[in-house]
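Dear colleagues,

I hope this message finds you well. In preparation for our joint manuscript, I am sending the Cytochrome c domain-containing protein (Bradyrhizobium guangdongense) sequence together with its predicted structure, so that both groups work from identical material. I would be grateful if you could confirm receipt.
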Amino acid sequence: MRLPALLIAAILTAVAASSVEAPAQGTSVGGSAALSDLMTRLQLQHAKLWFAGKLSNWSLANYETLQLDDGLERASKLLPDPARTAPAKLQLQAVRQAIQQKDVAGFIKAYSALTDECNSCHRASGFAAITIQVPLRPPVENQLFVDQIAEGRAQAHGFCGTCHIVEDAAKESPAYRPSPPSFLEIINRPSFSPDAIRQFLTSSHRRLGPDQAMPNPRLADYQIDAIVAYLETLKARSSR
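The corresponding structure tokens are as follows:
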């Protein structure tokens, strides 16, 4: 009877030892998985940043730099040497400066240097096989990287500004007097909605305006979408 008792004691001791070691192993694996997931997200943001900056969508580009900065800070806490992300974070500041200056050439230069720093960090961390490059195509197909709001503003001034006051009555001089409703008046109408504006811009515009002579600008779908997006932004801004 004594042998089985000793065997049971040995088994219990082994189980206890393995249960003590398990959390450490789990933490290591979990930390590695967390770092991998984080790097995948950073890679996506890195690609989005390129197209946003290259297409002068400075608001989106600035947003992506904030996401990258936060991601690099998180990554530093998962690396054996937290200081390894410091050069990339420093170069990210140069990217942000180019964005603030709306300098496309400066952005391209700073972005390339940031990409080099990412690869230097990979090599120093033992992940030399992971090489990041300037992306060749957009990382996702369901997002516009052009500044649709800026395009909508330009379309509104170009097509509608001849008759309507688009933004600033003190700086704009429509050809018609009295001028048709301003954009501010339009967005504050109870009937305003993106669908209604889109349907209106798609129509022929007949029997509207002075002498029922409002012209039909014959806008393409992407131009209509841009103007609608701009009007929605004006509406949101006026509601704040």
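For the figure legend, we might mention the following. The helical segments are 2-54, 58-76, 86-100, 104-124, 148-160, 183-187, 194-202, 221-238. The longest helix spans residues 2-54.

With kind regards,
E.M.
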